């Protein structure tokens, strides 16, 4: 089989709050990630009212990349990365989110980081907002329920676009913007800073926040292109294809509905307009959302250049007997297990073919370049007697996914910009706050209790991925 296109962006992905640490240094403000405690597979993370002394907040130190970035970037270069996806912590730049002037120390940190990356010819790929908006904006303004967020976000985006216009070319606006469609409290909080109140309609709050974020994203795209016409600015979506549980047309329609409900954000960001079904749905539900004609013009003029997306698992859905006629039950997903697939230790279905399906689905529907900016296996790793981590299970996962990516590119003709496996250096899980849910090719000695000397070492998957990158994907053995 032939190789990937020249210039293919092989890389690795992380997010500021999950690996930087340094949560309160050099003027950084408190972010929403800083008030989330550690959980596990069976225990949800607690969202506390401010930072409460004595609680275990895993993102506070994370893996302390803030103080290790030079040695870490050197290791990234050894791995052969062509690009490195991270996010800018909004609270390093605007600690509270509503200041007039940015925090110079925060800006300087990313200047230094981008310089360090360029020293090794590693291209930064930057997400503006990855689950870590300023906590002050949540407390003071109610998060993305409030239209004022648009101005705060656009200001933040403008400052960093201008500052790094010669250091960063690839951008994404909001990480997994559609991760809140499931309406779980955690998803709404991390995406939009919304803790649903007892008297609040969670679905309405999600649509309103999603609309303001879409407007902010579209404005950022326009402003970014004015600052540097070479910028490539993408959206970022969580992709989990939803399959029908059976050939029963009810299940098929239900699965189609679930996909529509999950990807309306993509319609807005890529096509510049709301899908018709959703306009009808808004009318029927009488949400009375704040969506102005001017907003719709902004959305139209601010479509993205590419689609960045994460892919971990697929889902299966069944229409139950009480399914309403409109097949819209966003809060009750009726998900069932896929009997044909194995699951990870955290119950995520492992489905390499689903990635090829996803690539084709996006490609056909939006006709834009695609960028797989997250993929990987969260697993327990064991340091063996020889002091090494033999993570053949991770290699197997990545190999099978890359094989499907190759088919999508070479057989299906999908236009793919790059592939950045998630958490290629161990970091704090967003879902559970654990360190022991590891995705990395680089091991970091730290555990769920927060102890460990933070020493970095190479797992077997490090050498495997290094070879894959060196051969531009032709040697996957
Ligand atoms: C995506 C997020 O949802 O999945 C990442 O963009 C996250 O921030 C990743 O870490 C994996 O999820 P988890 O819960 O295993 O960390």
From TrEMBL:
Positions in coiled-coil regions: none
Signal peptide: none
Keyword Hydrolase: yes
Originating organism: Companilactobacillus huachuanensis
Enzyme Commission number(s): 3.2.1.86
InterPro entries reported in the protein's UniProt record: GH, GH_1_N_CS, Glyco_hydro_1, Glyco_hydro_1_AS
Protein name: 6-phospho-beta-glucosidase
MF term (GO), any: 6-phospho-beta-glucosidase activity
Catalytic site: 374 (nucleophile)
Family assignment from sequence similarity: Belongs to the glycosyl hydrolase 1 family.
Keywords: Glycosidase, Hydrolase
Top-level taxon: Bacteria
């Amino acid at each position: 089989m032939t190789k990937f296109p020249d210039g293919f962006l092989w890389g690795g992905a992380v997010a500021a709050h999950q690996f930087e640490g340094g949560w309160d240094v050099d003027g950084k403000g408190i972010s929403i990630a800083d008030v989330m405690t550690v959980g596990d597979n069976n225990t949800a993370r607690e969202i506390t009212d401010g930072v409460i002394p004595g609680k275990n907040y895993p993102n506070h130190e994370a893996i302390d990349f803030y103080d290790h970035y030079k040695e870490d970037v050197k290791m990234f270069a050894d791995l052969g990365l062509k690009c490195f996806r991270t996010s800018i912590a909004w609270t390093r730049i605007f600690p509270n989110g509503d200041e007039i002037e940015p925090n110079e120390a925060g800006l300087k940190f990313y200047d230094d980081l981008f310089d360090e990356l360029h020293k090794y010819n590693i291209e930064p790929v930057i997400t503006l907002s990855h689950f870590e908006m300023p906590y002050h904006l949540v407390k003071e303004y109610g998060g993305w329920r409030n239209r004022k967020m648009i101005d705060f976000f656009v200001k933040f985006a403008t400052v960093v676009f201008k500052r790094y216009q010669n250091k960063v070319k690839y951008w994404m606006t909001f990480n997994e913007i559609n991760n809140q469609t499931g309406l779980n409290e955690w998803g709404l909080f991390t995406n939009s800073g919304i803790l649903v109140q007892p008297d609040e309609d969670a679905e309405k709050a999600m649509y309103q926040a999603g609309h303001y974020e879409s407007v902010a994203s579209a404005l950022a795209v326009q402003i970014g292109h004015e600052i540097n016409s070479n910028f490539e600015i993408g959206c970022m979506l969580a992709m989990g294809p939803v399959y029908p549980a059976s050939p029963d047309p009810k299940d098929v329609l239900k699965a189609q509905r679930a996909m529509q409900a999950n990807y309306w954000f993509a319609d807005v960001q890529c096509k510049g307009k709301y899908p018709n079904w959703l306009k009808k749905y808004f009318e029927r539900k009488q949400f009375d959302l704040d969506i102005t004609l001017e907003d719709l013009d902004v959305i139209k003029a601010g479509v993205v250049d590419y689609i960045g997306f994460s892919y971990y698992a697929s889902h299966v859905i069944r229409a139950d007997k009480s399914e309403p006629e409109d097949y819209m039950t966003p809060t009750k997903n009726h998900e069932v297990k896929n009997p044909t697939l194995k699951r990870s230790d955290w119950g995520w279905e492992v489905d390499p073919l689903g990635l090829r399906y996803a690539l084709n689905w996006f490609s056909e529907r939006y006709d834009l370049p695609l960028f797989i900016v997250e993929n990987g296996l969260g697993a327990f790793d064991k340091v063996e007697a020889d002091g090494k981590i033999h993570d053949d299970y991770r290699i197997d996962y990545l190999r099978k996914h890359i094989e499907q990516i190759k088919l999508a590119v070479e057989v299906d003709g999908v236009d793919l910009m790059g592939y950045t496996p998630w958490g290629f250096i161990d970091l704090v899980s967003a879902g559970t706050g654990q360190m022991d849910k590891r995705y990395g090719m680089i091991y970091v000695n730290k555990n769920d209790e927060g102890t460990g000397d933070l020493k970095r070492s190479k797992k077997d998957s490090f050498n495997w991925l290094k070879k894959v990158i060196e051969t531009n994907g032709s040697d996957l053995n």
